[in-house]
Q: What sequence folds into this?
């Protein structure tokens, strides 16, 4: 760079947090406007001469009160962007660099104000309405195709990625005899991109097939499995963070989770058997869903599987693109390339029937209905251990009635008093119990009679409110 521009700024001083925040906003927006993937804020380099001055600024150890500067800046930016901070020596001088993803779909704001670079100056975006309009119209870049690691050799690609799993699990073809053939197959799958004689490993390639996510600075994207003793977080028995890519480590992770789940001992035909408390297929489907639908640009949270004595909580970063109440009948993939590969490897469905299957399995296993929630930029699914009907509270029963009605509807059936009794194992002479659940679910606006003019409760059928 001959000098600063819309997406690059050199600084040797001025470490005020507010000024840094404004520049992160301006550089993210400037990069988006001129088609760059990233913006850069460099401390320790003089602008026009490029002289290496060095800097006393150390952002990785800087605090704002009791909070790390990096976390404070992340909170002040909206939407949150996955910027990274690097500190390193160069020509025996200390350099600090902010690596900033370009804005996508909307401007990046700092403390609710958007900024832009105009030449070498940082200005409020509202003063340039034409630039603001262009930012809102700018299509978002696919995270999966951004680069996790750039300018690596063929040998590095093969050393960093689990190529055996790519051919055995994904392509289901014999392993090529030449290194170049291996690379060509990965380029075809968009796991690697070749440009100007160099190879770049995409986020898609790293997230799915990394031998070690830490080598891509992606340890925060790794799944974390925590086993607690009891029903709360006071006593942790195990806390394991994965290091392999999702596809390479998926079956190992599922087997590890299964080994931590409680089971019940039952006796059938005089033989004692351990039966898992939770349907293994439901756990597998929910973990795969959490991987596929997470927001990779959301910082600070792991994809987490937490196991308690009475439930499993599976949470992923990012709010869902679909209202959780419509998870059963709807489908809206966030990471389509990643989802496609996970489906081809048999780890998940890609047709929106995964949650239907989970709800159906919970009914078969006589478990409470799963609960789908959102909280602080996270999507959370709760899978509950068995409870007798009289142990469930009103919300549990209404949620189960609604989900049963949805499940019947999406399988081209209709919920009736009888079908609900079968779901809860309620005896026929206690039909009024099921009637009460139906009435309460109607009062919550979640279901409705299919034919309101039908005066016969015995033959009444019900459909979801959205049907």
A:
């Amino acid at each position: 760079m001959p000098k600063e521009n819309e997406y690059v700024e050199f600084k040797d001083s001025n470490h005020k947090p507010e000024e840094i925040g404004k520049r992160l906003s301006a550089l993210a927006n400037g990069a988006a406007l001129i088609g760059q993937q990233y913006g850069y804020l460099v401390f320790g380099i003089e602008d026009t001469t490029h002289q290496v001055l060095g800097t006393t600024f150390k952002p990785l150890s800087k605090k704002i009160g009791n909070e790390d500067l990096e976390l404070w800046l992340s909170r002040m930016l909206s939407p949150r962007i996955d910027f990274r901070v690097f500190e390193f020596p160069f020509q025996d001088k200390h350099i600090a660099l902010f690596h900033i993803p370009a804005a996508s779909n909307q401007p990046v704001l700092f403390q609710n104000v958007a900024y832009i670079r105009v030449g070498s100056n940082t200005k409020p975006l509202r003063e340039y309405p034409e630039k603001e309009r262009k930012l809102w119209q700018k299509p978002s870049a696919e995270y999966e195709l951004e680069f996790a690691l750039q300018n690596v050799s063929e040998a590095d690609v093969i050393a960093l990625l689990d190529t055996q799993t790519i051919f055995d699990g994904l392509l289901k073809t014999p392993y090529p005899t030449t290194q170049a053939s291996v690379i060509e197959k990965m380029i075809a799958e968009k796991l690697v991109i070749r440009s100007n004689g160099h190879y770049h490993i995409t986020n898609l390639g790293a997230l799915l097939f990394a031998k070690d996510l830490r080598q891509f600075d992606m340890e925060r994207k790794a799944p974390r499995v925590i086993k607690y003793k009891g029903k709360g977080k006071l006593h942790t028995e195990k806390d394991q963070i994965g290091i392999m890519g999702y596809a390479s480590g998926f079956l190992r992770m599922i087997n590890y989770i299964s080994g931590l789940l409680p089971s019940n001992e039952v006796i059938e035909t005089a033989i004692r058997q351990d039966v898992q408390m939770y349907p293994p297929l439901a756990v597998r489907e929910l973990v795969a869903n959490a991987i596929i639908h997470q927001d990779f640009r959301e910082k600070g949270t792991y994809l987490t599987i937490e196991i308690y004595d009475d439930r499993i909580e599976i949470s992923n970063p990012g709010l869902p693109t679909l209202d959780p109440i419509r998870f059963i009948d709807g489908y809206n993939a966030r990471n389509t390339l990643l989802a496609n590969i996970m489906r081809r490897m048999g780890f998940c469905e890609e047709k929106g029937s995964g949650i239907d299957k989970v709800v159906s399995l919970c009914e078969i296993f006589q478990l409470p209905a799963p609960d789908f929630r959102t909280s602080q930029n996270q999507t959370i699914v709760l899978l509950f251990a068995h409870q007798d009907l009289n142990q469930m509270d009103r919300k549990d029963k209404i949620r189960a009635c609604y989900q049963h009605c949805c499940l019947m509807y999406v399988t081209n059936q209709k919920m009736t008093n009888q079908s609900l009794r079968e779901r809860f194992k309620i005896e026929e002479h206690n039909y009024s119990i099921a009637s009460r659940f139906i009435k309460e679910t109607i009062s919550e606006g979640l279901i409705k009679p299919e034919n309101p003019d039908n005066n016969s409760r015995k033959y009444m059928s019900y459909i979801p409110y959205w049907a």
In short: The radius of gyration is 26 Å. Residues 17-33 form the longest helix (17 residues). The CA atoms of residues 177 and 183 lie 11 Å apart.
